[in-house]
């Protein structure tokens, strides 16, 4: 047993050592190697989602060999004229354009071929169309498509992860109600109020704590999945805060508990916490697909280092970073497994509030510690003693979890009482 704990200690030691010795990236450039016909050419790698930064980059002094990763946001059809002017600057600076398979794109950039552009490469020796080209980096590059194309509509992976979160949550809660012999008629209103509380609370929480300027600049985007800046555009709900979702869920569940199922709210919270832990993992996976809530810069040789070419400029320069979304998702999956085992294998579900208190403590502890690896999300609304907004907001929830576990003995029920509405 001591050997197992020693190995766990070594893993955590290695993890945090890499954090404290994170790599610096002057000019926002990282290192890679372009393989041309088997020969390795060192290159500096640059990427950004900001058209202004992309436009000025070829004017800056750089190494002889540079590779620029182009994003879909750099080549939006609505800004075709501006895009062609930017790409003309790269042509003048002796850059060559390639598609995602490093096939050379020669000739003029047109509306027909602009979306095929993926890389702009400047090398001391120009590359020909017959050359075999590939990119090698010590880190992985995470550059997925945004979603599944269903005819004229794109089903974004972020939205799909929310569908999975609520879909699996519904299936799981159905199973829980069967285990507790609760009438299934109480399931539908729980799903409805949970959906309302999660979406509305998460969105308002994000805007209040991270983007309060939206109330003035783009009011309707706060409540609807659209943006009215620079024309009407469907965006989906991007920018959701778990703290806001939690606060809203507490109130919607209180209504459900007292007015619908007529049980102690802690009875509902105990079971809802199991579902939310699993749902949180799906949401963080959605953030991973969206290249948002990225981590701090990582050593390029770290096994955790990932380059997110599609990350927003609000997180800083586009360089290899920690996949903090995956760390958090993994923690939530572990929490879900723990809560499910305690629910199924122990009598703690009869001590109303105990599972919920434990859920609060561990969930927000995961959030608190992963925040050390994250870049700030927009403007930090609250900062205290070196802690960011997410960490400061997590502390009261962890304290609340301790208090709830402590008082849960007062609400212990029998198996017979568990199966009946109060």
Structural write-up:
It is a single chain. The protein has 422 residues and is of the alpha+beta class. Helices cover 47% and strands 12% of the residues. The chain is built from 13 helices and 13 strands. It has helices at residues 2-20, 51-56, 80-92, 157-179, 187-210, 214-217, 220-223, 242-261, 265-289, 324-345, 354-370, 389-407, 415-418; strands at 30-36, 39-47, 66-69, 96-98, 104-105, 119-122, 133-136, 140-141, 147-150, 153-156, 226-227, 233-234, 306-307. The strands form four sheets. Strands 5-4-6-3-2-1-7 form a seven-stranded mixed sheet, with no helix packed on it. The protein has a two-stranded parallel ribbon with strand order 8-13. A hairpin with a 5-residue loop joins strand 11 (226-227) and strand 12. Helix 5 (187-210) runs antiparallel to helix 8, helix 9 runs parallel beside helix 11 (354-370) and helix 10 (324-345) packs antiparallel against helix 11. It is elongated, with a radius of gyration of 25 Å. The protein starts with a helix and ends with a helix. The model has no long low-confidence stretch (mean pLDDT 84).
């Amino acid at each position: 047993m001591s050997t197992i704990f020693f190995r766990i200690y070594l893993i955590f030691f290695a993890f945090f050592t890499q954090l404290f010795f994170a790599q610096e990236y002057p000019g926002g450039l990282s290192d890679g190697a372009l393989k041309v016909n088997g020969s390795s050419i060192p290159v500096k790698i640059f990427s950004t989602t900001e058209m202004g930064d992309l436009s000025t980059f070829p004017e800056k002094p750089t190494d002889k060999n540079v590779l620029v990763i182009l994003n879909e946001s750099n080549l939006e059809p609505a800004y075709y004229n501006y895009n062609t002017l930017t790409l003309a600057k790269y042509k003048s600076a002796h850059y060559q354009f390639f598609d995602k398979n490093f096939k050379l794109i020669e000739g003029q950039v047109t509306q027909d071929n602009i979306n095929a552009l993926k890389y702009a490469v400047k090398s001391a020796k120009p590359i020909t169309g017959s050359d075999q080209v590939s990119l090698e980096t010590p880190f992985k590059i995470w550059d997925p498509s945004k979603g599944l194309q269903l005819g004229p509509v794109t089903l974004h992976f972020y939205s799909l992860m929310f569908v999975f979160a609520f879909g699996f949550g519904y299936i799981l809660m159905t199973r829980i109600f069967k285990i507790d012999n609760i009438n299934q008629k109480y399931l539908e209103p729980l799903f409805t109020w949970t959906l309302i509380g999660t979406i509305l609370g998460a969105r308002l929480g994000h805007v209040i704590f991270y983007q309060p300027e939206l109330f003035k600049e783009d009011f309707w985007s706060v409540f609807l999945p659209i943006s009215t800046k620079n024309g009407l555009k469907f965006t989906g709900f991007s920018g959701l805060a778990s703290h806001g979702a939690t606060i809203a869920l507490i109130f919607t569940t209180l209504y459900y508990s007292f007015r619908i199922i007529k049980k102690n709210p802690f009875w509902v919270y105990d079971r809802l916490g199991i579902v939310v832990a699993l749902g949180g993992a799906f949401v963080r996976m959605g953030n991973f697909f969206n290249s948002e809530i990225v981590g701090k810069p990582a050593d390029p040789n770290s096994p955790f280092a990932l380059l997110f070419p599609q990350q927003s400029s609000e997180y800083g320069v586009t360089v290899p970073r920690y996949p903090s979304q995956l760390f958090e998702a993994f923690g939530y999956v572990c929490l879900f497994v723990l809560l499910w085992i305690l629910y199924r294998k122990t009598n703690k579900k009869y001590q109303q509030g105990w599972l919920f208190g434990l859920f609060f403590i561990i969930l927000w502890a995961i959030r608190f510690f992963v925040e050390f690896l994250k870049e700030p999300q927009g403007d930090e609304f609250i900062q205290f003693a070196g802690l960011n907004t997410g960490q400061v907001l997590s502390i009261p929830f962890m304290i609340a979890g301790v208090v709830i576990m402590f008082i849960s003995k007062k609400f212990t029920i029998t198996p017979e009482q568990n199966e009946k509405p109060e």
